[in-house]
Amino acid sequence: MSAGVHGTAGGVPALRLAGPRPGWVIKADVVVVGSGVAGLTVALRCAAAGRRTVIVTKARLDDGSTRWAQGGIAAALGEGDTPEQHLVDTLVAGADLCDETAVRTLVTEGPGAVRRLIEVGARFDTSPETGEIELTREGGHHRRRIAHAGGDATGAEVSRALVAAVRDAGIETVENALVLDLLKDADGHAAGVSLHVMGEGRHDGVGAVHAPAVVLATGGMGQVFSATTNPAVSTGDGVALALRAGAEVSDLEFVQFHPTVLYLGAGSEGQQPLVSEAVRGEGAYLVDADGERFMVGRHELAELAPRDIVAKGIMRRMRERGADHMYLDARHFGARKWEERFPTILAACRSHGIDPVTEPIPVAPAAHYASGGVRTDLTGRTTVPGLYACGEVACTGVHGANRLASNSLLEGLVFAERIAERIARAPARVPVPVVPDAERIVPPLPPETRYAIQRIMTAGAGVLRSAESLERAARELEELAVDASGAPRVPDAPAASGKPAEPGVESWETANLHLVARVLVAAALRRTETRGCHWREDHPDRDDVSWRRHLVVALRPTAEGSTLVVRTTDSTAFPPVAPEETP
Ligand code: SIN
Question: Which residues form the domain of 505?
């Protein structure tokens, strides 16, 4: 038995990634995994409440998805706007699958949360005339409601302010650390995490943070597809950890494809530059190669329809024209507006040889945001006591079948504050992690398998899906699993070596991607309708009779390894899911 991990768990089977046992330990009251808006906000608040807080982050403190957010933060801050109007727009975008109580919480607590973010130090763009926060529009919003910073660099400013506050508060951080698995005590309550620190430092190799409260704020899983707006770190680690720990996940089939991602050519892979919806909010329009606007007449809001509708409109026109991209035309902004309002996008386009001042921008949809995630109640509790989730990794019920633009930073803020409040009220508990008697080791996958996963997912579970494409994806993902001899069956790969992959950061990330891909495909296959960002070619209509429901998936250990258990639940039923007395 290794340092700091004591006792046994009475035969409770558990799943964990293959790898060494922790060789070092940090003790804390709260461990926050992830350093975007949600993670840093929880950490700041827990530390302010006197809880010893440790942040574990995969790269550097400012390297998560938050800093890539362009458009801004949606909140009813403008004159004449109300939380009720924000609620209605959110429910409509969510295609009748949002949890109304969660949305009401978001929109009513949102304006205060944004003001508190300003108190922490975030500087939003203000009107030179009135000094008030400038607000823009994005898809699905019937009002100007989006606060922005640095023109189109909102996430970078939010990240800057929160990172500075975390450093000022002296919160302990472990950077370059991939979280591996949840540690539990003998009661099945969270007791910390195991993690692997990359590179040399005070801690390196596999270690652990022992804490009775574990907050997942690990962001998204966009890297499960070939082309995404997400950074390389978005490999679904939080969702995979939660699944192995026995937590439920929900709504994973609802992957939002951002309609306007800079098109860099057929076969472009990895993180692709975003062209914010705010560009359309300020008057840019979508055209085909003949310059014809194709969103007009398809929806009352035309280019500013909810994101799923615009993505579908682009895909349909691409099919009609046999094209692999469309165009966003904002030449009429002129050079000055481009430079002042959208400097980040202007620079990204120009670095790829496109000048939006003089030519339309080639765009195509790419994976952008996971509307689903680890299922939580309104205080961020998951179905595993002591394990919380917030931000993109979580499914609070706020987004339904399609997240409303710029609600994500807001959700991160609001639910982070709620989690911190909950943890501050919780009775003290000493974390005593145990090694379960019966463990199922999840084998690492060879790093090169990642590209096969991405290709399978893009072909079979992308913007447009069908039973045939999803069944093929499910089969191919299954075939990637390591067989009994440890040899992966990678299509088109050289003959299997017969040796299992070595545990390591890339092979653990690949195992995480493989698990979230399996769950996503299982849910997408089950949902035989088209709703929000889940678009089924073979079931083109929405089916409110059978499918105004959520799909909830859990991973259960079996004698051979593990199996996915899928069930449905009412769209309105999102009750507290963990026992009341747990912190
Ligand atoms: C954008 O700026 O278009 C993205 C904002 C978001 O994803 O909410």
Answer: 440-546
